[in-house]
Design a protein that fits this description.
α2 runs antiparallel to α3 and α4 packs antiparallel against α5. With about 140 residues, the protein is mostly helical.
Amino acid sequence: IESMVERLAARMKEEPEHLEGWIRLANAYGVLGKREQARAAWAEAAKRAPSRLDVQLDYAGALIQGRDDLAKNLPAEFPEAVKRIRTLDPENPLGLFYAGVVARAEGRPDEAKALWEKVLALTPEGSPERQQLQREIDALGKQAN
């Protein structure tokens, strides 16, 4: 598998405009647990597909995957990626969530809460995601006090 991924990476150097190749490469690196290489491949895909919401969402996700302190320490590229997502679809639930992550990190807990409450309303009752999001919202209230 690694040699196939290496061949694909070499091919992308020869054909850098091939969007689907970048997406395949990013996904392959993700499966292999190579986060930095996956982030770089998603960045290339995002650059080539600025109007594709799915690509922009995957790029933003790759930027923060595996990072511990998102409350205060976001990758520099993340806010701009979120801005693109919100421009493409202002009501996309994942885009709203990511915008809340940015707002929290930038010291705007009220804005983060409002964004996350919109997402909470769209999240199924009793789901683990809903419970986690409610904990994040509750933690915002404690930060403000």
